[in-house]
Amino acid sequence: MTSPSPNPGTARTRAATIALACAGVFVAYLPVVTVVVSLPAIQRALHATTAELTWVSDAFVLPVAALILTAGVFGDVHGRKKVYQVGLALCAAGALLALCARSVQMLWAGQALAGAGAAALLPVTLALISQAVPNHRERGKYIGLWTTCMMAAMAVPPLIAGVILEHFSWRYIFVLPIPVALVTMVLAARLLEESRAAGGRKLDWAGQATAAVAITALIYGVIEGGASSFTHPRTVAALILAVVSGAAFVIVERRSSSPMLEPSLFRVPAFVASTVAALISFLGLIGFFFVLSLYFGVVQRLSTLESSARMVLVNVVCMALGFAMGHLMRRFSPRSLITAGLLIAAVAMWSLTFLSADTSFPSVAWRLCLLGLGLGLAFPCITGTAVAAVPHHRAGMAAAGNNAFRQVGGALGPALLGALLTMRVTETLPSRLAEAGVTGGQARQITQTAGAEGLGAVAGLDLGAHTGRALGAVGEAFLDGMRLCLNVSAVSLALAAVASCVLLRTRRPAAHTGGAPQEDRATPVTAGDALR
């Protein structure tokens, strides 16, 4: 129960809690795009292959996807302030380890630590907002503020990374999270009150273990399949392990007295639709950033700052649209906004397939702004729709599950698109070199270098008079692979839009007791309702 007229101390505590929740999600998302835009510099410095570069991104996202459900339960049981502080400490430690990395494997370890910290912060920060703002009608605007801070963490740091890489080593892109996390920890120790969830939730270790194995095996299998072959015994074994572990997770959750993710939620059409939209939109977004950063670096040969200034347009438009979303969500249903947003994003992805080596900045910019418009319409409604579709006592589980699938999509994006990119480039590079008049030993040398060390390594070869033609052929082969990736992303987003349009027609009233919502007469739901 809350007092109708909270005293100034209570108001200050609420404001501090909301501010720290927003600071937490900002810290959690700092490494996502900052690292992606720096991949060409990291590849040159550490002599990493394309598959190894994929793991630089996925080493962060994998722990987030695998641990986010357990972190939410851990905060509910043992205290959200404790988990929040641990998350900040892990983010700072991961950034410090990456700052000192002398090999790509050490960089993976730093990214994994930071990812574990982000897994702790994401569910706890949302829980802190729910604790501070019990009124569901008022809570929506603070969830919107939380989303804006998430997008700010994906928009501002890449520009800072661009400036750093113009003048200093790539390592210093990891400096920013350290002081931000440490200062936030100090403030949280003084200002944040401890809280726990009412009820008898327990840690589901069997569910955690099977989920972590399934997610890790799936991502590993996709990455290794793209780097070598999907028929390689190691790849086949990983994918089989992913299927078996996924099936075991479902069995464990059905039998658990306190499941991390209740299987009955997947009988709710609106929850399924929002989860599919979350997975596919982040798969397309993070995978798109991975491919586009290589396009700017390998094909257009832009500096990191120039690449960042282009890629940041997507997040800037998302943030700008956030100020108008409150009005839009009062006027339109989540079905309309999510479907329209995903369709616009699909059209934007398809338009990017027309890029060439000499495409001008304005021609790239309007396509990126269109993508930001589509994602900006869809993102704010997705989590809220998942929460609104289930009984109140399962709202936290629905939000955590939706976030978990979003992170799985974020991990699959670089893995899947990186694998498609590598396969397509490997197929087309010999013919592109032949068209450019580069044959014989030099063609074999270029093909072998690109396959073993990545396309960026070709620029370091001494090719004499054939250098210009060889690099042009490499750029055309990369464009072949990029167009395949973008077409796959566009089709996926379009299918997610269709699923949202079909499954989000109505919302069924939530039941007061277990199971999925009751089969009562359906009632319309607005996007504003979805965020309550």
UniProtKB/TrEMBL annotation:
Residues 509-532 are annotated as: Disordered. Keywords: Membrane, Transmembrane, Transmembrane helix, Transport. It holds the Pfam family MFS_1. It is found in: Cell membrane. It comes from the Bacteria. The chain crosses the membrane at residues 18-42, 54-74, 86-104, 110-130, 142-164, 170-191, 203-223, 235-252, 264-296, 308-325, 337-357, 363-391, 481-504. PANTHER family: MAJOR FACILITATOR SUPERFAMILY MULTIDRUG TRANSPORTER MFSC (PTHR42718:SF9). Its main location: membrane. This is EmrB/QacA subfamily drug resistance transporter. PROSITE patterns: MFS.
